[in-house]
Amino acid sequence: MADIKVLYIDDDPSNRSLVRQLLSIHGFHVTEADTGLKGLAIARQEPPDLILMDINMPGLDGHETTTRMRSLSELKKTPIIALTATKDEGARQLALAAGCDGYIQKPIDIDKFPGQLLTYLEGYKDTITTDERQHYLDKYNQKLVEHLESKILELQEANARLRKTDKIKSDFITLAAHELRTPISLVYGYANLLQSVAQQFLVENSAINRIGELSSKIYNAVHRLNDVVNDIINIALIESKEIHFTRQPVRLSEIIQAALTELNPAKNGRLLGIHLAESINTLPLILGDKKMLQQAFWNILSNAIKFTPDGGMISVEGEVSSGNEVLISIKDTGIGVNSSDRQAIFEQFYTVGNVAYHSSSKTAFGGGGMGLGLPIALGIIKGHGGQLWVEDTPEGESNSIDKQGSTFYVLLPIK
């Protein structure tokens, strides 16, 4: 008897404890679940010899869980016994119509209970007449429809609350970003003015030099803060589909070069090889927003720089695809992107790695951010009717021995 595995599904821990202790004394091995969904998962993973099913449970009740189990090939012949305190008229017939093989009412008789289970394991099944089965099946179907209706109403109400909460969140982000932008602009302007005034004095004046150095630090810090605020505003506009593009003929080679010049990894102590293929210079003009496209490529290139260790290589190539589109590939020899993260990295606020080691640098190896760079790039590219995705760098195209790296692809329509 020690090999008999029993799965007991009941949301009451005291009931589960009593049955577990009683059956363990008689050599049964009891596994417990407190919901129908958990019971289904356990039964799929390791099908038991017998299932004890409470009827009144939250979520999927005992009837619905039993019906679902009967649809699984591995559980079609497993004895399922309703173990319930329900005393409603027709409760036994309803349980059998839903797919149970037996019906035992609580409180159980501790002397008879183990023997009852052995009887069901040997093939015994409680029965009802054909007319009773049909009557209670109709009743059960009606119950299922009513349950489904109530769940749909609950989901609709929950979705309405989520939409309202999401709207409040989006409005707050937009308002907060705009409120921050005004004082940032003032500090930004005054720091720039202070820096200019300091530069007009003689370089021998150490006090003035010190003022120039401090004003430069203020300027750089506010510049970084301004970038964060702009990212928040851009993601809010993209999410609300209110971002607008000023379209004009643009040359992608100039946009990519400008993004690399601004990032300037060498100036920030990064030892990386940057290769712009000649094919970039031969690409046709496309119609797009120059400033926004530069932001998109800046974000993608910054990502490649951050996740490629020193000594690695980043190369940018381009080609005309199908006559009406250009395809830009940004290959790196970095740490790569796990297959499980390839969709998630384009979701807002998603970050790779442990946030405890977060660094806000845009060029330092392993540097992080708020998880907005790639989502903003995706929103801008999609807003231009294009696509953005990532794949492993093809074999033979990576200069890294240990890591193959990643390749980000940008597909943009020419017109």
Structural features:
about 425 residues; alpha/beta; 5-stranded parallel beta sheet
Tell me about this structure.
The protein is an alpha/beta fold and 415 residues long. It folds into 3 domains: 5-128, Response regulator (Rossmann fold, 3-Layer(aba) Sandwich); 156-239; 248-413, Histidine kinase-like ATPase, C-terminal domain (Heat Shock Protein 90, 2-Layer Sandwich), CATH 3.30.565.10. It is built from 11 helices and 12 strands. The protein has helices at 13-25, 36-45, 62-70, 91-98, 113-121, 130-199, 206-239, 252-263, 278-281, 290-306, 373-383; strands spanning 5-9, 29-33, 50-53, 80-84, 102-105, 248-250, 273-276, 286-288, 313-321, 325-332, 387-392, 406-413. The longest helix is centred in the middle third of the chain and has 70 residues, at 130-199. It starts with a strand and ends with a strand.
Summary?
The protein is an alpha/beta fold.
CATH C-level category of the largest domain:
Alpha Beta
Distance between the termini: 75 Å
**Largest beta-sheet details:** 5 strands, parallel
Q: What portion of residues is helical? A: 40-55%
Mean pLDDT: 82
The CATH superfamily of the largest domain bears the name Histidine kinase-like ATPase, C-terminal domain
**Strand and helix order:** EHEHEHEHEHHHEHEHEHEEHEE
Tell me what the CATH architecture of the largest domain is.
Answer: 2-Layer Sandwich
Low-confidence segments: 354-358, 397-402
> Over all CA atoms, what is the radius of gyration?
33 Å
Assign an overall shape: elongated
Strand content range: 15-25%
